[in-house]
Design brief:
Keywords: Ion transport, Membrane, Transmembrane, Transmembrane helix, Transport. Residues 20-29 have a biased composition (Pro residues). Residues 1-36, 371-391 are annotated as: Disordered. The protein has helices at residues 38-43, 45-58, 67-73, 78-84, 90-94, 96-115, 126-171, 181-205, 211-215, 221-229, 233-247, 252-277, 282-307, 311-333, 341-370, 384-390. The chain has 16 helices and no strands. By secondary structure, it is mainly alpha-helical. The chain starts with 37 loop residues before the first helix and ends with a helix. It has a domain at 153-278 and 347-357.
Amino acid sequence: MAAHPPTPRRHLHVARCSPDPSPPPPPSNPNNKREPPLLVSLLSAVPDWADAVQERRIRDRRPLYDHASWRAHRSSRRHLRHFLSSFSSRVILSLAPPVSAFTAFAAAIATYNTLLPAYALTASSLPYQLTAPALALLLVFRTEASYARFDEGRKAWMRVLAAAADLAGMVRPPAPEPAPADDDHLRRALINYILAFPVALKCHIICDSDVRGDLQGLLAEDDLNVVLASKHRPRCIIEFISQTLHMLDLDEQKRTIMVSKLSCFLEGIGVCEQLIGIPIPLSYTRLTSRFLVLWHLTLPVILWNECKWIVVPATFISAASLFCIEEVGVLIEEPFPMLALDALCKQLHDGIKDVNEVQNSVHTRLVAKTKGRKGTDNGWPSSKREAAKID
């Protein structure tokens, strides 16, 4: 009987429920990007740290000033306090990389000129005397333009908050005329929508805001889900306000006035988005930065004949001063992280709540004062005879 050839064995791929005891190590760089050299990583460590400190301090919530804050602000001890807090200032910490770099460069130039005096790098100070006014004008324009943007953002927010307070005041029914149950429910919801709009606008223009956490106590859960699903949350809340106004039982003239108040909200959105999306012309920012860099790169060469090794502290003082001015202009160019928006929204909420309580309290007291006193004006006797009876 002829032998059959051996049947080739089939390899069965069995799916395992447990992982392989010795899985291959994951690729160290899945995106196939070349890691920077060690020297570049070390040189970028200080700028990365300074940027992280600056961004972390920008997210800090700023309080509104009260009387105690103003007393400390104008105190004669403020100069000492500001000087002692220099190493915790985010402006100064963010400037550690450029100031230290220019100071080290000045020390290198001074060392070279000391070791090789025959080949010392020197130059006349006349170009500095001619270009100093130009640098001063650039810095002045930069800071003034940034403060103009800061002031425009502040005024836009004041208009939004004033319109919200005015609209909430018009929603409340007069105290002697309580609203029906259904209408009262809509009015309460409308006031919450009005209070939620500044909060949503704040979250819309400030990065990494907790939208759900900020709106949690103002909106119902279903309304909050609709707002969070919207691509433009402030406009979604405006739509809530608009439709609620049309559902309320209001006088047509009053409804028209209240709907027209929404234009202040839309204007506030436009101004805020314009300030966020359009910075100061980049030509001025780049020119100022390049001018400052070239100025401090050549400063040790210009001052060597007159100052010698004093060029090192002179460069440090000049870089720290001028770069701080430019840094302040860059910071306030984006105005909204500089404003106490959380405190302003809370102040609006507390103010409307206090007005409601005062309105109810005043109405209760006036009703009790005038109850049962006919022929009197605001609870006071209308004749001397009634006054004598009271006495």
